[in-house]
Amino acid sequence: MYADISKPPAPLPSGQLQKLELGISLQPPLTRRGLGPGLILLTTAHEYDEDRTHWDDAPTPVIKWAEEGYAVVQISAAAIESLGAEEAFSVAIAALGSCDACQPKDKIGLVCFRSSLWNTAVPGLGSFPSISAAVIYMDEQNSADLLSAAVPSLKHIVGSAAKPSLGAGSKEYRYPDIKGSRWFSPGHPDFDYRSDSIAHTRNLQFLKPKMDGPYFDLESIWEEHTYYEFADRSVEHTMSTMVQEPYVNDIPTLTGGIGRLKLTDFYRNNFIFNNSADASLELVSRTLGIDRVIDEFIFKFTHDREIDWLLYHEHISWDQGTTLRQLGLMPEYLPFPYPVAGVPDNASVEYRVPVLGTETAEKLRDRNAVASNEMFQFSVRINNE
């Protein structure tokens, strides 16, 4: 079903960025499929390194969208000023039309990172009927001046909430806590990783239905990933299921890695070969999103070796307290450091630690396995020893 781990995994997608004009470049999709619809990015940059792919392990927009399966043309503000918006779009559309990796070609998305660029581009959009949907990043103070277009649009607006003024098929989100205008630009002081990630998911939810994809079987990819992790135990094949610069964080212990080199080292030296021979996952529930899989599972293993990660782009969390309780390292009672009504100040008071062991997994598996609300009876006691 999956690749033979005795042989090297297939190389990562490596379509090279092509420079079309000064400030205009084409990046083919960076996915196994190698095909995808076209997407045009209008960027704020006047001068930038087109060969730069990441800033502090965060992909640049052109790489991020290529890893989502799009054939991406990036148009800089400098190209708009030099060629004019309509000519720059003509170059972009022609490049996507002649790009074998751009499939299908009849629906193209547009992402604009500044409202002024959008206003420059709007008058000529009617000449390009293949542009099917647009995303615009903007500030609240510029929203009143934003020109309208016939294509459905998604707006990311920095500023407080206001009554939206939306056309058919359009949507907007507001970000009242963001301070800088370049919050979507990796490497810029304004970059806000959390908000950029949320906005990107919203972009995918908006664009994919209007562009007929690209859609991927994330569940199958995830099953392949965990198979290489826990069954075949191949570092190289596990990494082959991930993007160029992946990120894994085991939340309770902050273990994992950011970027291919560090994550490969973690998988090789602290994870894949450190798990017990009988380690397995028992799936309880699964939620599938446009760009993520969220699993709730019981991890079963025999603690017959040192498991580094149990000191304990994948975010894994678990109840560290129940892990310690199952290991016999969490006492049933601990000292209570605060005054208790009716108890002398010099008394030794303890509280029952609100942490359970295997009962949490048993109830997760079977709702009737353990009675509910027993912890309500946990209380403090005087230690007379």
Automatic annotation (TrEMBL):
Q: Name one GO biological process term.
A: polyketide metabolic process
From the record, what ranges are coiled-coil?
none
Q: Which SUPFAM superfamilies match?
A: NTF2-like
Could you tell me the superkingdom of the organism this chain comes from?
Eukaryota
- Supply the name of the protein: LEA domain protein
